[in-house]
Amino acid sequence: MSQPRIAVVGAGPGGLMCARVLQRHGIEVVVHEADAAVDARDAGGTLDLHADSGQIAMEDAGLAEAFHAVARPEGQAKARLDQHGTILSSFVPEDGDTAAPEIDRGALRALLAAHLAPDTVRWGHRLTAATPLAGGRHRLDFTDGTYEEADLVIGADGAWSRVRPLVSDAAPHYSGVSFLDARYEDVDRRHPGIARLVGDGHAFATDGQGRAVIGQRNADGVVRAYLALRTDLDWHARAGVDLHDTAAVRCFLLAEFADWAPELRAFLTDNDGDYVNRPLHALPAPLTWPHTPGVTLLGDAAHLMAPFGGFGANLALLDAAELAHALAEGPTLDAAVTRYEKAMWARTGELAVQANQALARFFAVDGRSDQGAPDHGAEHRRYRRAAAEYRAQAGQAGGRG
Ligand SMILES: Cc1cc2nc3c(=O)[nH]c(=O)nc-3n(C[C@H](O)[C@H](O)[C@H](O)COP(=O)(O)OP(=O)(O)OC[C@H]3O[C@@H](n4cnc5c(N)ncnc54)[C@H](O)[C@@H]3O)c2cc1C
Questions:
Q1: Which residues line ligand 1 (CB under 6 A)?
Q2: Structure pTM?
């Protein structure tokens, strides 16, 4: 292929990974990102990178060592509790278990961005419209009044993708579950009760009635919690709660979690800073679209799913690496994108269905909530086995990266 203009929209984990692997293949790429800078906003909580997906992409990016240098294998620990604070089950990773170590989203974003050629990412460049031109080319318009033309547009712009409508009418629907994201700083000194419950990893507490507190250890002495409710999308308006009024949110949460143990209710009231409302949405799954020359999607733009199973960022990273390899292999943009889409749909469709079902089961309110913990040891063995199979297949196909 002779020097096609490739534009990635979105500098989340997927978009940055795609640009990094393209550049390792010597292919030029520009990434357009709405955020003003790599650290312009709190990127959110921690992610576990699975051996069979996110970690394979990090290897393809030549960043496996850099990832393991900052990742937290001890963060794989998990406990399940009921609303009384009784521990129902717990998992502590064995020494040397690196099947799914944790990394903060901000650290992952910074790591990927730091390994791109200078000026690859145009920060503060929000896409407003993508318009088809002749021959599979597209015109991209940005909020600052500038525009570009591209031979291939890669929509890595997340849940509310502006690129997706070029290929599909599908739109995210509300799952019926909302998270309030809360942070606790300097936890070991200032919030020792919360630090103890969360330990090195995660604590999942649920009452089996559509309420949950999911605490997770982040880097630098921070714990984050998702205070979760099965509720209407506009729950705050219906309850007359201003989300910026911390006292009002606390009062609402204390009433919702009235019969929960005091040590768990501390998560509702002891946070530092604002609560961030995160209603969970998902795309219809499995989602495919008629192949459209000059445009494709990856990550959440292609398969936004519930965060139960921790697949979203992992799949975004692997989609990105695979798309970049396909483009390097050619022989044409169109052939490469067609191959990528076929493999991506096969990999992600069923996982999206499973993730959405797992969320629905965990937050069931008919007394049949799934409070049982997955077998994390078996899960880790599965990741390792699938990683070995993936590498063997890639080797047979002639190697990559
Ligand atoms: C509460 C919660 C917890 C989660 N936990 C996990 C987990 O533990 N493990 C896991 O694997 N996944 C998890 N996920 C899912 C994960 O966050 C996503 O799947 C992942 O971030 C997808 O990456 P992406 O690069 O496709 O999109 P995003 O991370 O959404 O990045 C999209 C980027 O595009 C930019 N953008 C958007 N619109 C425009 C525009 N018009 N112009 C320019 N730029 C634009 C955005 O600013 C953003 O930087 C969780 C999600 C949620 C909501």
A1: 9-15, 32-35, 47-48, 126-127, 156-158, 162, 179, 226, 278, 299-301, 307, 310-314, 316
A2: 0.97
